[in-house]
From TrEMBL:
It comes from Pseudoalteromonas citrea DSM 8771. Pfam families: DDE_Tnp_1_5. InterPro entries: Tn903_transposase, Tnp_DDE_dom. PANTHER family: ISSOD12 TRANSPOSASE TNPA_ISSOD12, PTHR34631. Residues 16-126 form the Transposase DDE domain. This is Transposase, IS4 family protein.
Length: 130
Protein backbone atom coordinates (compact mmCIF):
# COMPACT_ATOMS: atom_id res chain seq x y z
CA UNK A 1 0.00 0.00 0.00
CA UNK A 2 1.38 3.39 -0.99
CA UNK A 3 1.78 6.09 1.59
CA UNK A 4 -0.57 9.01 0.94
CA UNK A 5 1.19 12.36 0.67
CA UNK A 6 -0.40 15.03 2.81
CA UNK A 7 2.18 17.81 2.99
CA UNK A 8 2.84 18.62 -0.66
CA UNK A 9 5.06 21.65 -0.08
CA UNK A 10 7.45 19.63 2.08
CA UNK A 11 7.36 16.75 -0.40
CA UNK A 12 8.18 19.09 -3.31
CA UNK A 13 11.12 20.61 -1.39
CA UNK A 14 12.43 17.09 -0.72
CA UNK A 15 12.21 16.25 -4.43
CA UNK A 16 14.19 19.38 -5.31
CA UNK A 17 16.87 18.50 -2.72
CA UNK A 18 17.42 15.09 -4.32
CA UNK A 19 19.47 16.78 -7.01
CA UNK A 20 21.63 18.76 -4.58
CA UNK A 21 25.29 17.80 -5.02
CA UNK A 22 28.27 19.72 -3.64
CA UNK A 23 31.68 19.29 -5.24
CA UNK A 24 34.64 20.42 -3.15
CA UNK A 25 38.02 20.65 -4.88
CA UNK A 26 40.83 21.76 -2.56
CA UNK A 27 43.81 23.86 -3.63
CA UNK A 28 46.10 20.91 -3.01
CA UNK A 29 43.98 18.72 -5.31
CA UNK A 30 44.12 21.38 -8.02
CA UNK A 31 47.90 21.57 -7.66
CA UNK A 32 48.12 17.77 -8.06
CA UNK A 33 45.81 17.63 -11.12
CA UNK A 34 48.75 17.21 -13.47
CA UNK A 35 51.25 14.40 -12.98
CA UNK A 36 54.77 15.52 -12.08
CA UNK A 37 56.29 12.07 -11.54
CA UNK A 38 58.29 10.29 -14.23
CA UNK A 39 57.67 6.58 -14.63
CA UNK A 40 61.28 5.81 -15.56
CA UNK A 41 60.42 3.64 -18.56
CA UNK A 42 60.15 4.24 -22.26
CA UNK A 43 57.64 6.69 -23.62
CA UNK A 44 56.03 9.75 -22.20
CA UNK A 45 54.74 9.82 -18.61
CA UNK A 46 51.06 10.35 -17.92
CA UNK A 47 50.06 14.01 -18.15
CA UNK A 48 47.16 13.72 -15.67
CA UNK A 49 47.54 12.34 -12.16
CA UNK A 50 45.63 9.32 -10.90
CA UNK A 51 43.69 11.74 -8.68
CA UNK A 52 42.45 13.66 -11.74
CA UNK A 53 41.37 10.47 -13.54
CA UNK A 54 39.69 9.08 -10.41
CA UNK A 55 37.84 12.37 -9.88
CA UNK A 56 36.54 12.34 -13.45
CA UNK A 57 35.50 8.68 -13.32
CA UNK A 58 33.66 9.22 -10.02
CA UNK A 59 31.78 12.18 -11.51
CA UNK A 60 30.93 9.94 -14.45
CA UNK A 61 29.47 7.33 -12.11
CA UNK A 62 27.49 9.91 -10.10
CA UNK A 63 25.98 11.65 -13.14
CA UNK A 64 25.81 8.61 -15.50
CA UNK A 65 27.69 10.44 -18.27
CA UNK A 66 29.32 9.05 -21.40
CA UNK A 67 33.03 9.85 -21.67
CA UNK A 68 32.68 12.66 -24.23
CA UNK A 69 30.01 14.40 -22.14
CA UNK A 70 32.15 13.87 -19.04
CA UNK A 71 35.05 15.71 -20.67
CA UNK A 72 32.84 18.72 -21.34
CA UNK A 73 31.26 18.57 -17.87
CA UNK A 74 34.62 18.54 -16.08
CA UNK A 75 35.91 21.37 -18.30
CA UNK A 76 32.86 23.46 -17.37
CA UNK A 77 33.39 22.72 -13.65
CA UNK A 78 37.04 23.74 -13.87
CA UNK A 79 36.05 26.92 -15.73
CA UNK A 80 33.48 27.81 -13.05
CA UNK A 81 36.17 27.35 -10.38
CA UNK A 82 38.58 29.63 -12.30
CA UNK A 83 41.13 26.82 -12.35
CA UNK A 84 43.52 27.07 -15.27
CA UNK A 85 43.26 23.33 -15.90
CA UNK A 86 41.69 21.13 -18.54
CA UNK A 87 39.83 17.88 -18.28
CA UNK A 88 41.51 14.72 -19.53
CA UNK A 89 40.28 13.80 -23.00
CA UNK A 90 37.73 11.04 -23.41
CA UNK A 91 40.30 8.68 -24.95
CA UNK A 92 42.70 9.29 -22.06
CA UNK A 93 39.89 8.60 -19.57
CA UNK A 94 38.99 5.39 -21.39
CA UNK A 95 42.57 4.10 -21.46
CA UNK A 96 43.40 5.06 -17.87
CA UNK A 97 40.12 3.68 -16.50
CA UNK A 98 41.28 0.19 -17.49
CA UNK A 99 44.40 0.38 -15.31
CA UNK A 100 43.09 2.45 -12.39
CA UNK A 101 41.13 0.73 -9.61
CA UNK A 102 38.43 3.22 -8.61
CA UNK A 103 36.40 2.24 -5.53
CA UNK A 104 32.80 3.20 -6.23
CA UNK A 105 30.24 3.53 -3.49
CA UNK A 106 27.63 0.77 -3.69
CA UNK A 107 24.63 2.19 -1.83
CA UNK A 108 22.80 5.31 -2.87
CA UNK A 109 22.36 7.74 -0.01
CA UNK A 110 19.32 9.82 0.71
CA UNK A 111 19.60 13.59 0.87
CA UNK A 112 22.70 15.58 0.03
CA UNK A 113 25.78 14.19 -1.68
CA UNK A 114 29.18 15.79 -1.09
CA UNK A 115 32.07 15.00 -3.43
CA UNK A 116 35.33 16.03 -1.74
CA UNK A 117 38.67 16.05 -3.57
CA UNK A 118 41.84 16.93 -1.70
CA UNK A 119 45.48 15.93 -1.95
CA UNK A 120 44.81 12.60 -0.21
CA UNK A 121 42.21 11.50 -2.73
CA UNK A 122 38.53 11.59 -3.52
CA UNK A 123 35.61 10.74 -1.24
CA UNK A 124 31.84 10.70 -1.79
CA UNK A 125 29.79 11.36 1.33
CA UNK A 126 26.07 11.04 1.90
CA UNK A 127 23.86 13.25 4.04
CA UNK A 128 25.46 13.90 7.45
CA UNK A 129 28.54 11.72 6.85
CA UNK A 130 31.06 14.50 6.36
Amino acid sequence: MKKKIRNWSQYNRALVQRGNINIWLSESAISKWQNTEKHGGRGRSNYYSDLAIETCLTLRAVFHLPLRALEGFVNSLLTMMDASLQSPGYSCLCKRSKTLDVQYRKSASKGFIDIVVDSTGLKVYGNGEW
